Amino acid sequence: MAELTAEMVVDQLVPSDPRISPDGTLVAFVVAPMGRRGEHPEAAVWLVPSDGSERARKLTSGAVDDRSPRWSPDGRWLYFLSDRSERGEAQLYRMPAQKSGEAEALTRWKAGIESFVPLPDGESVALLAKDEPHEEDERRERERDDAEVFGERWPYARLRLLEIGTGKVRTIEALGERHVVEVAPHPSGTSLAVVSWPTPELDNWSRENAVHEVSMPDLETRRAATLGAGVYELAWGKPAPAGPRLFAVAAGLGGVGEAVLHEVPLEPGGDGPRMLEGDLPACPAGVRRGGAPEADPLVTVADGLDTWVGRLRTEEANLEELWHHSGLLHSQTSP
Fold first, then answer.
1. How far apart are CA 267 and CA 264, in angstroms?
2. Which residue ranges make up each domain of the chain?
3. Are 106 and 125 in contact (CB under 8 A)?
4. Is 306 left (phi over 0), alpha (psi -120 to 50) or beta?
5. Which of 41, 138, 188, 284 shows the greatest Cβ crowding within 10 Å of its Cβ?
6. Do the Cβ atoms of 34 and 14 come closer than 8 Å?
7. Mean of all residue pLDDT scores within the chain
8. Are residues 206 and 216 in contact, defined by beta-carbon separation less than 8 angstroms?
9. Among positive and negative, which fits the CA dihedral 278, 284, 288, 294?
């Protein structure tokens, strides 16, 4: 057996961010070395049949930072972020999923794209992207004028909508001067759930997080709820008689201690967020939509040194364990 070296550790390839195709037959994921050889990270998007019938194949070269694969609603396209045009500045690309083809650039946003979600209509993508630099910002960078006053020039991430056919990007102005950190589209495409902070200051993660609902396609926006601390993930659940259900995993009080699973009511005039499984002797780590719109959401739970996946029975507000993993489960996904 070869002696373990530091080079072997940092060069080790690590898979992450698995994403199942809408029909459940394929899994896209990211492979990246544990360490970094140069100034910028490198990663590649891979694809493998979900039944293990074929070996995984590499879709992108891995010479740049290709990450965050996401499927189009019909499964024909695979979207991803890449800094191949300008290192350190990610743009949105797509490529055919079932056949060979070149990646197509969909954005040229000067500040780069933070994250994105393809929308159920198949014609648009929700983007989280910082404001593009103004002339003064460009002058400061050109002249290396790097003096900073705390909070004076923070770049806010906004919710923007990309029309794939035209390439037009619209900013959702109704959210005002808020820093957007999370977006989750309803499976029907009728609305978006959005989490925002008052500013981009990282300490906001441990403070109150606002949850908004943006209706589609009119883009009317309202503040639906407030959570006491940072939100890890949002997921839609099967609808209740009163309307759609939204679930969130958020930090404990003041952002310290265990995470908490909440149901976030969206009907106007409803009660505030309801904590679920408050007596669970473990820590919810993530929540995902359970596949079909009528399915209950799935929750990952960190339990000591192990992890298990449970189905949240929304009517009884309890977790039914489905699968136990001995060790850390880094991420989960559903079609």
1. 9
2. 11-109
3. yes
4. beta
5. 284
6. yes
7. 85
8. no
9. negative
